[in-house]
TrEMBL record:
This is Uncharacterized protein. PROSITE patterns: PROKAR_LIPOPROTEIN. Keywords: Membrane, Transmembrane, Transmembrane helix. The chain crosses the membrane at residues 16-38, 50-66, 72-92. It comes from Salegentibacter maritimus. The keyword Transmembrane helix applies. It comes from the Bacteria.
Length: 93
């Protein structure tokens, strides 16, 4: 929890820079996850995975554009990066 609080405090201090870096990181990791999902196939399950990844990444971008509180944006960034990483791991193997 201490690490989370330190990262959140740093995120709030330089929020504008972190928003931009977060958009780049979320979009790049999400696009890698989408590529791996689509390389695996085009079944209904694959399209559902793609829907989840795209929705979560777009959700972060929408929260940044809507200028929500930094804590909400930070939490959505963590969720977006974790979701993309999980789907990357799932689809590599």
């Amino acid at each position: 929890m201490k690490l989370y609080n330190n990262l959140l405090r740093d995120f709030k201090e330089l929020s504008l820079a972190h928003y931009a870096l977060g958009i780049i990181a979320s979009s790049c990791l999400g696009s890698v996850a989408a590529m791996l999902i689509l390389m695996k196939g085009h079944t209904l399950f694959d399209m559902f995975q793609l829907f989840i990844v795209v929705s979560v990444c777009m959700g972060y971008n929408a929260l940044v554009l809507a200028q929500f509180k930094p804590k909400i944006i930070f939490n959505s960034l963590l969720i977006s990066l974790a979701t993309s990483a999980i789907f990357i791991i799932i689809n590599i193997f």
